[in-house]
Design brief:
Largest sheet: 8 strands, mixed
Number of helices: 16
Length: 542
């Protein structure tokens, strides 16, 4: 599935998107204070603020302080006041901020592309320079719409008192407690954080801008958001691109991701023989890497290890390395940025060696990987992430069930998962890995919960391109194919030697394909994907 804050941490898709345009600095947005206006149009005009939901918010003449700059383009920024929970005016409103990067060519735009970078809860507005550079060709004649989902960036943050670091690094019991605490702190406002609400916010902004139809471009969690938008506003969709995708009716046990970890290990070992300078000799044996993974998982299942994880600006965090933490490292973290710099060291490329050493009794290399990944933990509040995950995502229990019944249904689902369904992992151990799955939301209250997101809504008959990296265990090929089958005109492309969000590969091939699809509704020649080189793999001593 999505993993946690896929575009935020240490070069996830927000940081990773920067890899598409090396050396480009990030622009840090300054959010408006909660309850105040987030800005006005960049042209210097202001619109009067009214109490009606969906009207523009005024903030004095001129460009709002948080509005980003994109070289060679005019950027228009504004905000809209929206109901926090539709039909519940007593819960108040939320100001949703957006930016429109205007096309370069004279005349009207040929289309408007709405991009969501993932999460749930990732910001988009401050990354306008990154997306502007990555989609420079498309911006010749298309506008780019970037909306910060409610509760993030310039869209009025509402914290719930749970940080990224404590949530990601904590034990599973601590994560469940954090979810419950977040729900209590949000109270009835928790119902305002849903994918459907964000989709409706985007559509309200579309209408305000006078755009008839949008091209939807979703990355990671954005591949969940954009089909929800399409199901709720089908008449306003021109075409869709989904990258690092999973379907609305995804497997709540995440079995395809567990199995894809083993497949990725086999693939990188086999392909390492084709790396420049390898001389036709593979750096590792894929079957042995999978056996070492199973050995490591079994040992950690019985004997977890404590590891001190360094955190920037804070004392080290004592993390318990369990089978679940290993699973998170292997399926999510190791999928990130794969292919962005094939010759550079990567977590996935280092994993066969670390597993080999652990199986031989040396835990050092694996613990080094754990420390490096854990050190990216931040103080960012996780309200938008936790609430969307616990409100919207499929669970192996019924949302209206009492806690004891939820546990019974969850354990029954595990028992019926099938032998070998989780690859090299045990079922219960693996499902302690996902921060957006397993039993993490089991304490989310029955009250203050939004209606469940439909898993098989009617979707528009428009051209759809779904992209997956064939080394991605976070949203593997199996999920991408299923995501494409949601649509009558869905096309699926697996991109060799890339991981989560294949546009991050450095040649520009995948962006060329997606840009051509947006322009023409056709993928055209995709042969360039076969020339993306294998990643470097740390040799395993023999």
């Amino acid at each position: 599935m999505t993993g946690m804050n896929v575009l935020q941490r240490a070069g996830l898709v927000a940081g990773a998107a920067m890899l598409l345009v090396p050396g480009l600095p990030a622009v840090t947005a300054t959010a408006a204070a909660p309850g105040t206006s987030a800005g006005t149009a960049a042209t210097g005009t202001t619109a009067p603020r009214t109490t009606a939901a969906g009207t523009m918010a005024a903030a004095g003449a001129g460009r709002p302080a948080w509005c980003p700059s994109v070289e060679g383009h005019r950027v228009d920024c504004g905000s809209m006041t929206r109901p926090l929970v539709a039909g519940s005016p007593a819960l108040g409103t939320v100001d949703v901020g957006y930016a429109v990067v205007r096309h370069r060519a004279p005349g009207p735009a040929k289309g408007t592309v709405a991009v969501n970078p993932g999460g749930p809860g990732e910001v988009a507005v401050e990354r306008a320079p990154v997306f502007g550079a990555a989609l420079a060709d498309l911006l010749a004649d298309h506008d780019l719409l970037l909306v910060d989902p409610r509760g993030t960036g310039v869209s009025q943050r509402i914290p719930c008192g749970v940080t990224d670091a404590e949530y990601r690094l904590g034990t599973r019991a601590q994560q469940r407690d954090a979810v419950t605490r977040c729900a209590v702190n949000l109270g009835p406002r928790a119902r305002g954080y849903t994918t459907a609400a964000t989709a409706d916010d985007i559509d309200a902004i579309r209408a305000r801008l006078g755009v008839d139809r949008l091209t939807l471009y979703g990355l990671s969690y954005g591949t969940y958001l954009m089909p929800v938008y399409a199901s709720r506003h089908p008449e306003h969709v021109r075409s869709i691109v989904l990258s690092g995708a999973y379907p609305l009716a995804f497997d709540p046990l995440g079995r395809s991701g567990a199995q894809a970890v083993s497949l990725s290990l086999r693939r990188i070992c086999e392909r390492s023989a084709a790396r420049p300078g390898a001389g036709g000799r593979p750096a590792c044996d894929g079957d042995k890497a999978v056996r070492d993974l199973a050995t490591t998982a079994a040992r950690l299942r019985e004997h977890p290890l404590d590891v001190d994880v360094p955190l920037e600006g804070a004392a080290p965090y004592r993390m318990r390395l369990t089978e679940g933490k290993l699973a998170g490292l292997a399926y999510e973290s190791a999928s990130r940025e794969v292919g962005s710099d094939p010759g550079a060291p990567s977590l996935l490329g280092a994993l066969p060696h670390a597993l080999d050493r652990f199986a031989a009794g040396d835990s050092g290399p694996l613990l080094d990987l754990v420390r490096a990944e854990g050190s990216t933990g931040s103080a960012e509040d996780q309200a938008p992430y936790i609430a969307v995950v616990c409100n919207d995502y499929r669970k192996p229990w019924k949302a209206d069930a009492a806690p004891s019944e939820r546990w019974r249904q969850y354990r029954s689902a595990l028992a019926g998962a099938g032998e070998g369904a989780f690859g090299a992992f045990g079922a219960a151990g693996y499902l302690e890995g996902p921060t957006d799955g397993g039993d993490v939301c089991i304490g989310w209250p029955r009250g203050n919960t939004a209606p469940p997101q439909p898993t098989h809504p009617r979707l528009p008959d428009v051209p759809v391109l779904v992209l997956s990296g064939d080394l991605d265990a976070n949203t593997p090929d199996a999920n991408g194919r299923q995501a494409a089958r949601q649509f009558r005109d869905g096309r699926f492309l697996s991109v060799r030697n890339t991981g989560h969000v294949p546009e991050l590969e450095r040649s520009g091939c995948v962006l060329e394909v997606s840009t051509r699809f947006i322009r023409t509704g056709r993928t055209g020649d995709t042969g360039c994907t076969s020339r993306i080189e294998p990643i470097a793999v740390t040799p395993v001593r023999r």
